């Protein structure tokens, strides 16, 4: 999903990874918003499908755009994502201090899985649904490879690579709660919250401990949360997939 061809620090690869990690990119087709949402003193953050206009629609260079639209699913509103050999996302910029990271609740429904998808394989890295969280951190701890990637990202986009990106995903076969390290950089890691076709065409609701999941995936405490995104992609497997996203809550 993120890169094509061999690892070569290509501009296309850096831009795609920057966007997927929650980083703004001047070189990407983007309906940009400068609004940053902070956690209220009382209560949490609540993103609803009806708020679609408040999300940044972000396209990846050289990729067809996944179609997002608001629609009714039974008695609820949902954001439909329809990917036809495509990859793009909707993003919110946020600012949540580490000490305020708590419970995350979200829900989605998937119409079908992609038979060839495997998120551990860079050439088959597609998922019918993703909830993406980007975090700040101490970039001086980057490996030489990740430091080079961050520097190149900043040179191309004006912003460095986020310190860490955590994704919640639906896998074809990997066990629930397993961690998948992105095949391009270990600064992007995925936690499987659903696996296999058993619950296709059912609304699935999840409650996660963001801090615990981050520590499990990265082996350290999280920094501030700086972006939230949803993404449905099928560009690597050249597939047709449809999914729906419901409410997202941080408490």
What does this structure look like?
The protein has 251 residues and is mainly beta. It has one domain (32-138, 162-250): Jelly Rolls (Sandwich), CATH 2.60.120. It is 13% helix and 39% strand. It has three helices and 14 strands. It has helices at residues 11-20, 144-157, 210-218; strands spanning 36-38, 45-47, 56-59, 67-73, 76-84, 87-96, 103-110, 127-135, 164-171, 179-181, 188-195, 204-209, 225-233, 240-250. The strands form two sheets. Strands 1, 3, 6, 8, 9, 10, 11 and 13 form an eight-stranded mixed β-sheet that branches. α1 (11-20) packs across α2 (144-157). It is globular. The two termini are 31 Å apart.
Summarize the structure.
With 251 residues, this protein is mainly β. The chain is built from 3 helices and 14 strands. The chain has one domain: Jelly Rolls (Sandwich), CATH 2.60.120.
């Amino acid at each position: 999903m993120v890169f094509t061809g061999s690892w070569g620090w290509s501009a296309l690869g850096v831009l795609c990874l920057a966007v997927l990690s929650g980083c703004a990119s001047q070189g990407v087709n983007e309906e940009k918003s400068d609004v940053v949402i902070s956690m209220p003193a009382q209560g949490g953050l609540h993103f609803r499908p009806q708020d679609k206009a408040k999300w940044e629609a972000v396209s990846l260079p050289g990729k067809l755009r996944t179609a997002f639209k608001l629609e009714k699913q039974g008695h609820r509103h949902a954001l439909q994502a329809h990917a036809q050999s495509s990859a793009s996302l909707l993003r919110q910029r946020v600012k949540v201090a580490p000490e305020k990271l708590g419970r995350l609740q979200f829900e989605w429904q998937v119409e079908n899985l992609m038979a060839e998808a495997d998120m551990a394989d860079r050439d088959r890295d597609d998922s019918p649904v993703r909830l993406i969280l980007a975090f700040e951190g101490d970039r001086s701890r980057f490996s030489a490879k990740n430091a080079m990637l961050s520097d190149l990202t900043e040179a191309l986009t004006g912003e460095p690579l986020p310190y860490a990106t955590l994704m919640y995903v639906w896998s074809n076969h990997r066990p629930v709660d397993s961690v998948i390290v992105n095949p391009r950089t270990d600064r992007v890691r995925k936690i499987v919250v659903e696996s296999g076709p058993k619950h296709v065409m059912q609304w699935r609701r999840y409650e996660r401990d963001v801090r615990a999941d981050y520590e499990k995936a990265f082996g350290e405490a999280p920094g501030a949360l700086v972006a939230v995104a949803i993404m449905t992609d099928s560009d690597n497997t050249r597939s047709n997939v449809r999914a729906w996203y419901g409410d997202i809550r941080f408490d």
